[in-house]
Structures
1.
Amino acid sequence: MTDSRTDSSDAEVQNALNPNPDALDEHDPNVARDPVCGMLVDKRTANDTLAAPVNEKGIGMLYFCSANCKALFEANPAQYGFSSL
Ligand SMILES: [Zn+2]
């Protein structure tokens, strides 16, 4: 029987093609939190990133779920706890 093996590899392929944000673990070092909407972002597949000055939180790079969140952040970083870019 190969049913269970097929299921597992299908799930892996689907995960790679369309990662489900709900499945991300915020304690995973490859996962960051979008400072705008609070969504978890996979650093390895994030398209919208921003080099941020290291601040009191020790964050050197910001990851956004979308270009829209990145634009919101750039327009008003103070609203999200960053004094400047
Ligand atoms: Zn977002």
Note: The first helix runs from residue 3 to 17.
2.
Amino acid sequence: MNNIDDWLNNPEVFLADVAATHQFGCDLSNKLTAGTVLLLVGDLGSGKTSLVQGLAAGLGVTESITSPTFTLINEYLAGSCPLYHLDLYRLTSDEVAALHLEQYWEGWEVEPGIVAIEWPERLPDRPAEYWQIELTHHPIAGRLAKITKIQEFRSSMTF
Ligand SMILES: Nc1ncnc2c1ncn2[C@@H]1O[C@H](COP(=O)(O)OP(=O)(O)OP(=O)(O)O)[C@@H](O)[C@H]1O
Ligand SMILES: [Mg+2]
């Protein structure tokens, strides 16, 4: 894939194994700019953290990427742009609201970067524009990723 539009035209990507998930994240990171929000939707074990590991590798982050389930937010500032990795699994919507995560995409206090959020169902307020990546277990092996760009007024724009 050379162009982000290729993904929008063919939004389903088959990821045969974890290496493919890493590569997909790496390819994505090269197309995204600071300020992009990625909402990673998918069941337990569907590959969300693996995708973030690929994003981080693509940005040149050398630290190991672990799930921020307990820390909630991991910030990686040593790559070509900041990477913010959030995992909201353990939080309620009220607890998420109290964190004021909009600082990550509205650019106050936090240097703009790529924001990758696991379990975004817990977000009370979403950004005006974001990419949603839905990961599902493939019935035989591997995973399927579906990438969609969502813009203001909740209009879904899968081309
Ligand atoms: N395309 C793939 N095919 C097969 N296995 C994969 C694929 N991508 C990731 N995995 C494997 O799936 C397992 C779970 O991956 P990962 O931790 O990234 O999922 P997750 O969605 O972040 O889970 P959680 O909801 O618990 O945070 C790991 O063992 C990982 O190696
Ligand atoms: Mg995870």
Note: Helices lie at 4-9, 18-29, 48-59, 93-99, 103-106.
